[in-house]
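Can't attach files on this board, so I'm pasting raw text. These are the components:
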Amino acid sequence: MTDSPNYRADFPVLAQTMNGKPLAFLDTAASAQKPQSVIDAMDAVLETGYSNIHRGLYRISQDLTAGFEAVRAKIARFIGAKSEKEIVFTRNATESINLVAQTWGRTHLKQGDEIILTAMEHHANIVPWQLLQKDIGFTIRIIPVLENGHLDYDTYENLLNEKTKLVACVHISNAIGTVNFVNEIIEKARKFNPEIKVLIDGTQAVVHGAINVAEMDCDFYTFTGHKLYGPTGIGVLYGKTESLETMPPYQGGGDMIERVSFDGTTFKEPPYRFEAGTPAIVEVIGLGAAVDYLMDIGMENIQAYERALADYAAQALEEVKGIKLYNGSNTQSIFPFTLEGAHPSDIGMILDQCGVAVRAGHHCCMPLMQRFGIEGTVRASLGLYSNRQDIDQLVKGLRKVKDMLD
Ligand SMILES: Cc1ncc(COP(=O)(O)O)c(C=O)c1O
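---
Top answer:
Structure tokens for the assembled complex are below.
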């Protein structure tokens, strides 16, 4: 395969230099850069067709309402949902999970119940459950992470019991890149008790390959627009119709009601029941443009390209003296590492001088860092616009770190 199909050229921000060097942007797992088509789609709304949606009787409002709802249908197709009514727009993945905790969780969990999380969850899939736990008093059980970065699937089976009501698990770890066997996790839960709900945090997974939530048979799947080459301020909650229908509203206000009186209020059907207030209209259009961009390239092509690049990166990084990589087998596009004798923040700052953007710290996965007995790592993460030059620049930068700090 050639080094790069040059998707990079579609991303105007990547044309610049940083500290006099070409910008090697290796922090896509934190937030992805935006292709020109996303910027153009959002500009076009603001320049030629902006209004509020759902209630306007005039043409630009009706056109924008149709465009907004078309994105819902597009996202349903993108992730293999059976209906666009299963797509709830939220602010981000964090809000998607909080929504499930505060609506499904508050309605269905009681004292004495158990939920299962994993030791590699992002704080977004830990803290919402802890907040609810304080009010309700259920127990949180944790699937451990093995030394090789995989979940301990045997322990998972033993954790399932008659008190288990929910399993909530990340699809691809943002901190160590492990691709979890979510089908196996869902199957085991279903086999034990078909009533157990399964939430998959797909924030990193939806970016790197094709997803089919109907085939996966999860109850909830969550992700965020800004990591999917779309704008900030927009996220998605997929929920199976039968699950969404059992959930009360998340927030109250306009757009989510059927009828309001001081004697009582009735609510719309899902997904609208969960979308109180004016939504992120322009951002939804931007997310739709991002999904168009990805579908035009093809998620299978993106996956193949990124896997080949990841092999190149793995090999190049392994050759850096004193490096310890924290990703094991079956990982995707995420390279967390420490370097002997250097603090992650110092590495990050020196790499910045070399034009390389990486993340250093705990990556919102403190329990996972505790598991490995470290404070944090440096994380280089790839996107579809990454290329071999970025990796070479990173490796050169790491050699400079060694020279400066040794
Ligand atoms: C796996 C995972 N889940 C959830 C989140 C939260 O995303 P957001 O901050 O957009 O809500 C992130 C962000 O880093 C993530 O990587």
